[in-house]
Amino acid sequence: MSNSKKVHTKFGEPSTEESTAANSAEVVQELDQDVQGQPSSSTNSKKRSRKRNKNKNGTGVTSEPTAAAASAASLESQPSIPETKKNKVFKFDVDEKKEEVTESNKIENTAEEESTQEKKPNDKEQVKPQRKKQKTHKVVEFFSDDEESNFRDTRGSNQPQQSLKQRASQLLSTRSNLPVYKSREQIMNHLNKNQVTILIGETGSGKSTQIPQFLLEQIPRDSKKQHKGIAVTQPRRVAAINLATRVAEEHGCPVGTAVGYSVRFDTTATHKTKLKYLTDGMLLRECILDPELSAYGVIIIDEAHERTVLTDLLMGFLKELLVKRNDLKLVIMSATLDAERFSKFFHSAEILFVEGRSYGVDRYYTKAACDDIVDSAIKSIVQLNQGEQEGDILVFLPGQEEIDKAVGILERLAPDLPKEAPLIVPFPLYASLSPADQAKVFLPLKARRRKVILATNIAETSVTVPGVRYVIDSGLRKVKLWRHSLGLSTLLTAPISKAAAMQRSGRAGREREGKVFRLYTESDYLKLPDQTEPEISRVNVTSPVLMLKELGVEDILNWSWLETPGEDSLISSLTQLYQLKALDDSGKITPLGHEMAILPLEPQLAAILIKSHREYHCLSDVIDIVSCLSVDNLVLNPSSETRDDVNERRRAVCGLGCRYGDLIMLKELLDCYLQFGNKDREERTQWCKDLALSSRGFRNVLKVRQQIRQYMMTLTKDKHLFQDIENDEEDDIEYGSKPMDIPAILKSFLTGHTTNTAIGLPDRSYRTTTNGSLIAIHPSSLLFGMKKDAIMFTDYVYTTRGYARNVSVVELEWLQEICGGVLKVNAANNEN
DNA sequence: GAGCACTGC
What we know:
Elements: H1 2-7, E1 15-18, H2 24-35, E2 61-64, H3 66-73, H4 83-88, H5 98-113, H6 127-135, H7 145-154, H8 161-176, H9 179-182, H10 184-193, E3 196-201, H11 207-218, E4 229-234, H12 237-251, E5 259-263, E6 266-267, E7 275-279, H13 280-289, E8 296-301, H14 309-324, E9 329-334, H15 339-345, E10 351-354, E11 360-365, H16 373-387, E12 392-396, H17 400-413, E13 423-429, H18 435-439, E14 449-455, H19 458-461, E15 468-473, E16 476-483, E17 488-495, H20 498-506, E18 514-518, H21 522-527, H22 542-550, H23 567-579, H24 591-598, H25 603-614, H26 619-629, H27 643-653, H28 655-660, H29 662-676, H30 681-690, H31 695-716, H32 723-731, H33 742-752, E19 757-760, E20 766-768, E21 774-777, E22 790-798, E23 802-810, H34 812-818, H35 820-831
Parallel strand pairs: 3-9, 3-10, 4-7, 4-8, 5-7, 8-9, 11-18, 12-14, 12-15, 13-14, 15-18, 21-23
Antiparallel strand pairs: 1-11, 2-10, 5-6, 16-17, 19-20, 19-22, 20-21, 22-23
The chain binds one DNA strand through helix 13, helix 17, helix 19 and strand 16.
Organism: Wickerhamomyces pijperi
GO cellular component, one term: nucleolus
EC number: 3.6.4.13
């Protein structure tokens, strides 16, 4: 630490915090990477020990009335709070008592490093016996390297029942050392006595794998009586799949039997499944089919602190369902103190705390605010590389632009740096990077090299890179903000919250003690909001509102929102649904609205799809385009060196796209992809590479397409809806041979995008028809720089100026025909 | 003539 002080002259004194908010779902995501053949972390600690003090009863669990959590939440402003209480909860911010807390952590560090030496006595008496106890469990951790390789072996192989059982009993010793396992009795007593339980569990507590199993083990295995099942929701698909796989193994059964999962396009659960991991979106789908959720006796909402729109909706829905179903139990699992809100929401349900296992992270702040974040990040990386011991560096930057810039600078800089320090090897990491490029961050490096991963928010929860010991945090992120008054969303660079800063720094403490270098001052840190604003308060809620209408909620404004999106936002969503004819004059859902709610698409796209069938008779082409639109990162951003070539090739393939715009381009690209067929896989992959398209993206497009076709056949009760297409596919007739009815396709889209239109001006800029603001065609569009009478776009982004993305050419007459009312507004604007 | 964070059905 003294060494680092010398080197990091820019930073102030270190302070220490516990890493928080990371959770067991992330742990399994590491596992996923291993399953996919990526190297596991060889440095993964064999000696993981707990740093957290236990409470007096020694179980690691405390059942507290909510007032205790409230006092814990306001920790900063109550320096007189007893030490024992502080240790029960997360320390979001210990800066005001930095010395005190650093001191206590120092003692703990010492105890760990000198494991044979008896700990010096201190004033925290209750800590002492517990620490002794934990030392005996040091070798045990959630996933050791050995565990993971064994896990790989058994997964997917058809092992006899006996060996599955053997494996399960082997795993039992690992399980039984998890903090949650030790508190089993207490937790289960509480769960059995209460309808709602809020559980805060830190990283590595094992809550996501163990608590569902405790509940499962209460159900007799071979009971003839029908027992209601357990559902565990996750915000991410990969987490649901991996947790189910792991838990099935611990339970000694193949996935898809007693334990299974259900995510879009991939379900292993059957009617026999008693414990099901599923995405929150999937459970909401089940709500539509069965509003009583009668298949379940217990619902567990995991990762509730992430506050995704879908989790929030589920909690509101379940709150109402609990009144109707006295036998239903609900467990809300969270990793942060935000649980206080959950408790209040569920009529002051009690909060249980379970400790976790993670390492301390020293914090450093800059002495002055940084004006150029990329420059500051580079300087910090170089300093750190020279002054600190081995360990990889994870740098959080807001977006692709900053990351690419920083990677470029580092690549030029690295060979000229002093040779005493390890060679810096930079890796970018963001979602629109191709999977192959993303995977590079997991490759091990030769000796005397240091990995520097420059990442967006993707590394905060979705991707866990092993080996990271240092985090550099710009304190910035990109946020999509929905402006309901404009009907447009903007993408802004904004400061993160304290909770997010904590989450980011926690990435340095997953395997051993780490350090975080924050590229902002401590006083700026203190000004950050405690929690990240929940998604629901900043996004377009048209889709959630339609779902609630479908579930029979009449008074949307006064529904049991965990957090209301706001009256303006709700009213604009209701208005939009009314305009799409999903709601009638009295605000009730229409038959069309019902069909839209069933389709797994944004209401706008659903409306377009149905219109394309009933009015414009071009359903199958529109399904193809809509499928492309609903897959992320299909058309990738080419790197700056290849950009011109890629654009050239795309234009060559998309003759019609060049004339009519990006929607038609998507159809042409898909047709091209399909023409390769499965015989020419290699060629097809090369083609995708040449055009900077994602093969994985296309595979998803085909899944979505298949799903939507299925839904449309059900909705129209017409089994032969796609018969001619399917015959073509069987006969291997060339794709794209049937000419598209382009006006019909574009008119279909116009019905859903009346407000996303603009009129061309002489200088190649455009004026929107809604409020007359200036907008330009985004450079990523095939129509970039072209002058057209009128355009329609699916997306709007404001950066240096307003940009329309995914642009298509429309005719002025169509605007009059389809969005007459909108044009009048435009005329009024132009007069002003 | 410029550049989009992350999820879900």
